[in-house]
Amino acid sequence: MATASDAEDAAANALSGFGLGIAGGSCYNSAMKNPPTLTDSRTPSPPYGYSRQCNYSREQQIHIVAEFHAHKIRPSRIAYRVGIDIAFIEALIAGELEEERFPRLVAQYRRQRYQQRMQSSNSHNGVTRFELQQRIERDFQSETDL
Q: Which of 44, 119, 58, 120 is CA-nearest to residue 89?
């Protein structure tokens, strides 16, 4: 008699024929055992193979990754949106490439994001503005303490 595990393994093996790199069904199994929580408002990452072609130079890619990282966008989403190689993105974030320059760029883009958020908070009035600015300040402090 076929079990649910056999069905999952068969589905994973069928997907591995498409170059998705799912070995033994482990990725497939973990996705089925841990459904996304309702509090997670992020959109899911697209399947592999649906990313865009990248038309940016290596220099531009470094700046793009730094800006997206400063805005708390996951590496898989950066790769999908812009088409930059995910291994390159993860190497930058991990500090394996551009060890000194990349953190400086991220810090620059975080300060820029902080200033933009503070400017946009000026459209609110009174207590709402104060609370929003306090939250922005806390977020910025927690990001710079990393």
A: 58
The rounded distance, in Å, linking the Cα atoms of 121 and 128 is 9
What distances in angstroms separate CA 134 from CA 28, 64, 128, 140, one per listed residue? 42, 28, 10, 10
- Distance of alpha carbon 36 from alpha carbon 34, whole angstroms: 6
Number of Cα atoms under 13 Å in the Cβ half of residue 72: 9
Tokens 């806390």 found at: 138
Mean of the per-residue pLDDT values of the chain: 73
Digit-coded pLDDT (tens) for 81-106: 888 888 889 899 998 888 889 999 99
* Torsion sign, CA atoms 14, 19, 25, 30: negative
